[in-house]
Here is the input.
Amino acid sequence: MQDIEDRDTEGRRHFLKCMAWAGTGTLWLMHGGVLKAQPLTTQGATAVTDATFSFVQISDSHIGFHKAPNMDVAGTLRQSLAMINAQKKEPDFVLHTGDLTHLSRPEEFDALSGIMQDARMAKVFYVPGEHDVIGDNGAEFFRRFGERQQSGGWYSFDHHGVHFVGLVNVLNLKAGGLGSLGADQLAWLKKDLAGLSADTPLVVFAHMPLWPLYPDWGWGTDDSNEAVSYLRRFGSVSVLNGHIHQIQQKVEGNITFYTARSTAYPQPAPGAASAPGPLKDVAPNDLHRYLGIRDIRHVQGNHALAVTEEVMA
Amino acid sequence: MNVMSWMLVVISALVLSTAALSPVMAANAAMATPAKPIAVDIRDFTFAPKTLTVSAGTRVVWTNRDEEPHVVVSAGNQFSPSRALDTSDSYAVTFDHAGTYTYYCAMHPMMVGTVIVK
Here is the structure.
């Protein structure tokens, strides 16, 4: 009996340890057209009450991955979704910024769908990661999770005066290159934004970073400059990405770029290892490297002060 | 030394002398069987060796040594792409015709390699 209890405790401790570094998600609060980030906790965010609305970003769930440092990626995703459900004010929707699965296998997509259904997530908007489009150019991904607006899989929608754009930058990648949007998508994006006034708040999301975060490791998108040039005239722009399994931020004019953590496993900081990939040995003493960073940035826009804030709990 | 031991010594000597006489036979055997497959390791998001020169008819075997999956795909669609190669998975292509075959990882396109077939 003693033995079983010990093992249970050990398992739980390990699970909690995983949860400490695996990202849970980011709660995004919209305040008068300005996006503000909060850590997703079981307590719920205090600032939610005066927000216009909120949504949650989760990323890189990698269902199917089953190695160190996380043997239970389904469990850590479920935990993240439980935190979404624990919010006092229900977020309006969830964005999943790609790499739902590890190997694009049907059973992995099934498992992801099942977990989302079990957690009774309201609306979830997805964009694919490169792990979701293996072998079929994303056909299965788009069949199951696509918004079916454009044949290429990209889409936009409006919510409480904010224009959201979901982009696909993991298909038709060229030898020697990075992520790619492609001419068709760029033409669509230009047209999609053309009719909007400059004071429309924008939220643009895609899997791979839409800025040259670390091209040596493929962390960027070949034609992101063109896309970003269409965004510059707007007063409040937030670009949300996944892919690199850690939080990185950059502010450029009125545009704030943000990459989310993974719900599955962390990756090394740019250049901190010989190559990207799962950080296998996450020692308890090293946990602070993934925790406790507080980063506040202000962007003086045309109309409002854009603030992004990230606290890693 | 008993009789059994003597016999073993004799047999060993016969085997050794046969081996010493056999280089010609060994060369003939090598001609008859296909060339040995050449290995390309995928490690730390690179192909090793990055450039490989082989003779026509050589089988090239890629093996993923990373934790991250990779997909071997021909840049000019000159050979069929692999499926997703998880850790320790392999993929093989036999190159029957001379030419330069550039390939990359469909998931991490900065990973590029070349097979030159003479």
In short: The longest helix of chain A spans residues 2-21.
